[in-house]
Amino acid sequence: MNETLLACIKQVQEREFLFEIKQLKTGGCVPKKSKLRSLCPFLDQKGILREDNVPPAKWLLGKIIKKFPGPDNVTRVVSIKCKTGEYRRPVSKICILTK
């Protein structure tokens, strides 16, 4: 997408879903009452809301580059490097592939 279109999308999303975006930026969850909840949204590298409900054939392949362990030393979030950028995702939303 070109930069102008991305800027417009981001501006509209911030106007309509400011609270949800703030929650996702701080590592929180989308509130249960939010219209976005059923879409399992996440923020991409550029801060654009994306939906998580894509078929497995369209999943991005990537490499885990950083783990974020919690206070109990259990990793629940990782950074993944893909061809389209770097994403921070919960471990419950990734699928590990073996050789």
From TrEMBL:
Residues 47-97 form the DUF5641 domain. Pfam families: DUF5641 (PF18701). It comes from the Eukaryota. InterPro entries: DUF5641. This is DUF5641 domain-containing protein. It comes from Euphydryas editha.
